[in-house]
Amino acid sequence: xxxxxxxRSNDKWRFLSGTDVxxxxxxxxxxxxxxxGVTVRLTEVEAYSGVGDDPASHAHRGRTPRxxxxxxxxxxxxxxxxxxxxxxxxxxxxxxxxxSAVLLRAGEVVDGIDTARARRTSRAGVVSTDRDLAxxxxxxxxxxxxxxxxxxxxxxxASSAVTLLPRVEAVPDSSIRNGPRVGVAGGADIPWRxxxxxERSVSPYRPRVLRKQ
DNA sequence: AGTAGGATAATCT
DNA sequence: GATTATCCTACTG
Length: 213
Fold this sequence. Notes:
Elements: H1 21-28, E1 32-35, E2 38-48, E3 77-82, E4 86-93, E5 100-111, H2 113-119, H3 137-144, E6 162-165, E7 176-179, E8 193-196
Antiparallel strand pairs: 1-2, 1-6, 2-5, 2-8, 3-4, 4-5, 7-8
The chain binds a DNA duplex through strand 3, strand 4 and helix 3.
C-alpha cells in the first residue's frame, strides 16, 4: 500500500513539513528514533536551514551529491560521514526544495540498551556509561547502528529500518532551552541548538575552536 | 574538571 | 589541498 507521507492523513507529523525549521526542531524533542534493536528518546537537536541564510548548513551552497535528500520531502533520513570516522544523522524537514534539516545530537536509550552498549564499546574495550551511550551526534548514530546504508530512509514508514516515533510523554515548551550550535564554522551566532532542560544525556557545550583570524 | 592532540577519509574548492 | 555539524585517550591540576 501507499506509504503515508508527511501531511494529509498523517497529521501528527505535520510539523515536519512546515516552513519553520525551528519549530520542527522543538517538536522533535521527546520523539523516539528506533533502529536495529535500539530506541532512543531525543533530548538535543540542532536546526539547519537550506540554501541561503545559514552558512553552517550542508545545503547552503546548493545541491551536491551528498546533500541531495535534503532537497526532497520531509521525514527522510539524511546521513553524512565526517572527520574520517563518524556518521551523523538528520531528519529532513520543510517543503520540497527547502533543504532544511534537523541534526539529532543526543538522546536517552529507552530500549535495547545491551545492544547499544555493545555498539558503544571502544576499540580498547571500554564500555560507555549509560549516560554517554547516545550523548553526541556520532555516538547517537553509533548506538542506533545507523550508517550510510540508511541514507534516504523513510522515517515515517513503519516498515523502514529506521523509524521516527511520536512522543510518549509531553514536552512542555517551558522545559526547552536553546543556544548556539556546537562546532559549526559559520552561523555561530544563530541559537538553533535545542535541548530539554535538565536532561543528563544532553551533550556539554563546547565553544568552537578558533580557526584563524 | 578541563584541555590537548591524534585518528582518519569523504567532500568540495 | 583544506576543511570538517566528532570522539577517545592521556595528560595536568
